[in-house]
User: Which sequence fits this backbone?
């Protein structure tokens, strides 16, 4: 996750992240909670492109977030135009790890890691990573 990273990571997505007036805190900066929303937007984009959530739900399983870690490097202000990138960093038997970077003018404003598992929604117990996701991930790795 370098400031000018242009490498293509597995399942990478990129989104423009709008800064709204209600995203600004009393100090004139984007509030920390907004970064969580942006990570959710990015994760949903990964799913939309690689393993649609509606298909997962129809089969009775889906992803559940277990942890989020964010490092704030530079503040984002109202008229900044951040870009978010997220990619699948690791895929275990039932678990996954995504990494993200939020950039402003090609400078890293924040980096994040999120971990989760796929669960059967009827039992809320972990299930194996979907075979089609595993195949796509393994195909894209050296």
Assistant:
């Amino acid at each position: 996750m370098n400031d000018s990273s242009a490498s293509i990571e597995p399942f990478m997505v990129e989104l423009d992240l709008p800064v709204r007036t209600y995203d600004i805190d009393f100090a004139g900066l984007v509030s920390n909670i907004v970064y969580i929303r942006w990570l959710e937007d990015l994760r949903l984009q990964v799913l939309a492109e690689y393993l649609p959530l509606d298909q997962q739900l129809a089969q009775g399983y889906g992803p559940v977030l277990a942890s989020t870690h964010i490092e704030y490097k530079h503040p984002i202000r109202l008229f900044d135009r951040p870009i978010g990138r997220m990619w699948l960093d690791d895929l275990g038997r039932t678990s996954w790890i995504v990494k993200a970077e939020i950039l402003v003018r090609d400078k890293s404003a924040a980096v994040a890691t999120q971990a989760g598992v796929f669960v059967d929604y009827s039992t809320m117990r972990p299930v194996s990573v979907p075979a089609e996701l595993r195949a796509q991930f393994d195909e894209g790795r050296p």
